[in-house]
Amino acid sequence: MAVGPQRVNSLQERLEALGLDAFLVTLPTNIRYLVGFTGDLGLLLVTKDAVELAVDGRYTEHARREVGAVPVREVRGEWAAALAGLAANHSVGHIGYEGDHVTVSQLERLAEGAPGVQLEPFSGTVLALRARKSPEEIEALVQAIALTDETMAALRDWLRPGVTEREAVWFVESYIRTHGGEAVAFDPIVAAGRNGAMAHARPSDRPIGRQEPIVVDIGARVEGYHGDLTRTLWFGTPTDRFNELYNLVLEAQLTAEDGIKAGMSGKEADGLARAVIEGAGYGERFSHSLGHGVGLAIHEEPRLSQLAEGTLETGAVVSVEPGVYFPDWGGIRIEDLVVIEDGGVRVLTRSAKEPWLAE
Ligand code: ZN
Ligand code: ZN
């Protein structure tokens, strides 16, 4: 995706308030977001009126093709010397950096190799800009979500009792790869029966049976953007327990999708679903947060959790994924992706919510 200058401009506008001459971006997805470079290593220096990308020789040509008018400097030797060169080139001394992503030893080397530069750590500066998606980003997310929905439908047609979780995961991976996805967004989860009691279960060689909940959590990646979808499926006649719990999680999910509004905190959004599950006496079984932002990373800002004080803004794309988990029985989770708009959310996920599978 071609990136216009407005994203860099948004960061430049923040520099004055942060008390900085420049900002050094090192997290690859943040560099990609700001200037479109898709390599996995680089330094991006953003000053009040300029921007420059430093990459090593593997990426020079690659970077020049991707970043349009942004100057690209090839690093030969130490990265710290490259930072010193960037700082001197733009006459900046006080530079903010991404404190969540630079290791202690990297910082020591940068400080030693660029002694005239004062480095100050910041947290979440670019991630905050990424929370609000542009129309082009939402279009890329819609494509990733559509392929994820298509994969879920194909899995539902293909799945039979006796197939192992690992075989089902391979079906998902190969379907995504052969239908336009550049990769899976994360290791797919297919977790039946008690294996589904872990929210982040690993697939096993156990055959999937009848009369047990099957948690399927999958995503396709398209143009760097991630899909994320969970459905809970079931072969055979439902038990009363499954019906009761499935309907409870569905009610919690629909209540949150109806109630989430721009301007609300992530904690308030989480509370919409949590109140429904707590009201039925299963609050302790909802052992994770309600949702997370999705974009160039599978988990990003904003967060929808009991600890999230930040405000949900229009343009954010987030998951809404309540669940309940029982060690002796399994789990139920239902997850959609939604975009927050004026007046409420628009659900981007299209997958059916009926859990029943034909045998
Ligand atoms: Zn998921
Ligand atoms: Zn998710």
Topology:
Elements (H helix, E strand, L loop, with lengths): L5 H13 L3 E4 L2 H8 L7 E5 L3 E6 L3 H7 L5 E4 L3 H11 L4 E5 L5 H10 L4 E5 L2 H6 L4 H24 L6 H14 L4 E2 L4 E4 L21 E5 L1 E3 L2 E2 L2 E7 L4 H20 L6 H14 L11 E3 L6 E5 L12 E4 L2 E4 L3 E4 L2 E6 L2 E4 L8 E2 L2
Parallel strand pairs: 1-5, 3-4, 5-6, 12-20
Antiparallel strand pairs: 1-2, 2-3, 7-10, 8-9, 9-12, 10-11, 13-14, 15-18, 16-17, 18-19
Helix pairs in contact: 4-5, 7-8, 9-10
Bound molecules: zinc ion (2 copies).
One zinc ion binds next to loops.
Describe the model.
This protein is of the alpha+beta class and 359 residues long. Helices cover 35% and strands 23% of the residues. It has helices at 6-18, 28-35, 60-66, 79-89, 104-113, 125-130, 135-158, 165-178, 240-259, 266-279, and strands at residues 22-25, 43-47, 51-56, 72-75, 94-98, 118-122, 183-184, 189-192, 214-218, 220-222, 225-226, 229-235, 291-293, 300-304, 317-320, 323-326, 330-333, 336-341, 344-347, 356-357. The protein has a six-stranded mixed β-sheet with strand order 4-3-2-1-5-6, with helices on both faces. A four-stranded mixed β-sheet has the order 8-9-12-20, covered by helices on one side. A three-stranded antiparallel β-sheet has the order 7-10-11. β3 (51-56), α3 (60-66) and β4 form a beta-alpha-beta unit. The longest helix has 24 residues, at 135-158. One zinc ion (ZN) binds at residues 217, 228, 230, 335.
